[in-house]
Amino acid sequence: MTWNWYANNHLDKNRYEKIYINLILALVSLGLYAQTNRNKTIINAALHGWEYEIKAGVNLGGTAPLPFPEEIRSIDGYNPTLSITIEGNMTKWLDTKKKWGIITGLRLENKGMRTKATVKNYNMEIIGYDGNRLKGNWTGGVRTKVQNSYITIPVLAAYKLSPRTTLKLGPYFSYLMDGDFSGHVYEGYLRETNPTGDKINFTNGAIATYDFSGDLRKFQWGVQAGVDWKAFKHLKVHADLNWGLNDIFNKDFKTVTFDMYAIYLNVGFGYAF
Q1: Range of the domain at 16
Q2: 131 and 209 co-located in one domain
Q3: Are residue 63 and residue 150 in the same domain, yes or no?
Q4: Taking a C-beta distance cutoff of 8 angstroms, is the pair 156, 169 a contact?
Q5: Burial, 18: exposed, middle or buried (Cβ in 10 Å; 0-12, 13-18, 19+)?
Q6: 78 and 210 fall within a common domain
Q7: Measured distance CA(270)–CA(267) in Å, rounded
Q8: For residue 223, which of 173, 263, 171, 155 has the smallest C-alpha distance?
Q9: Does the model's pTM come out above 0.90?
């Protein structure tokens, strides 16, 4: 009986070992097959003029009025904040030498800044001490925070200047997923309704907040121009200027009396498949 028990357990052990070995071999074979199949797909795409890339970077810049309005007397502080971008794109080369191509893809990005300015007769809607909204002309200090999240589709023409360098130019189209344009005023006064209206002072540390986030335009577009440089076989670095061509606020928003545009430089790196 002892011998039978030992023999049966030894057989079970051998059986389990064979099962584990076969399972490992199957997983390795499946991984090799998937890797081989992926490589074949990428090679086949490259032979037909397609290239794929994933990218990451940061946006540096701000939301600026153009031309610069006379109401803003000075910019006293600027912080670009951390604005990250993640992008996947594809390039279709149009000729056999791969000189000219079209790039498109999908980009998730943040665009933000913090500023401090001194203004005079600046059209403003603030939230007063009692929570009521007050409209008028503000003279004094203004702090502004902008932090917007977009999903963006670029459509770019590409020209390969050299085996390592590619130039890009074309439009981009963005949808605002989440927006924040807010801040506060300080050390100054508000003339209600117009420049000669009743004077309301905010001094000795008193502030009044404002929030125009609900008036941000959902769809924005502009032009993108940039350059890619291939540092290694798969590693690229890039620099792209993104210049907004429509006002960030809705057309019927009248509190800010001048147009403001998102102007950002995106720098980062990418992995080319």
Answers
A1: 1-48
A2: yes
A3: yes
A4: yes
A5: exposed
A6: yes
A7: 10
A8: 171
A9: no
Do 19 and 57 lie in one domain? The reply is no
Q: What is the pLDDT of residues 182-191, one digit of tens each?
A: 999 999 999 9
- Rounded CA separation 223/76 (Å): 29
Q: What are phi and psi of 2, to 5 degrees?
A: -65, -40
Cα distance between residue 131 and residue 201, in whole Å? 16
- 63 and 39, same structural domain? no
User: Are residues 38 and 108 part of one domain?
Assistant: no
Count the Cβ atoms, other than its own, within 10 Å of residue 164: 12
pLDDT in tens, 201-255: 988 888 999 999 999 999 999 999 999 999 998 999 999 999 999 999 999 998 9
Question: How far is Cα 38 from Cα 223, in angstroms, rounded to an integer?
Answer: 34
Tokens 């584990």 -> residue: 20
Same domain, 33 and 152: no
**What would the 3-class secondary structure string for 152-210 be?**
EEEEEEEEECCCCEEEEEEEEEEEEEECCEEEEEEEEEEEECCCCCCEEEEEEEEEEEE
Number of domains the chain contains? 2
71-75 long-range Cβ contacts below 8 angstroms, 24+ apart: 71/119, 71/120, 71/121, 71/122, 71/123, 71/257, 72/117, 72/118, 72/119, 72/122, 73/117, 73/118, 73/119, 73/120, 74/117, 74/118, 75/115, 75/116, 75/117
Residue 12's region, left for phi above 0, alpha for psi from -120 to 50, else beta, is: alpha
* Residue 75 CB neighbour total at 10 angstroms: 13
DSSP for residue 213: G
pLDDT in tens, 1-42: 444 444 444 444 466 566 657 666 666 665 665 555 555 555
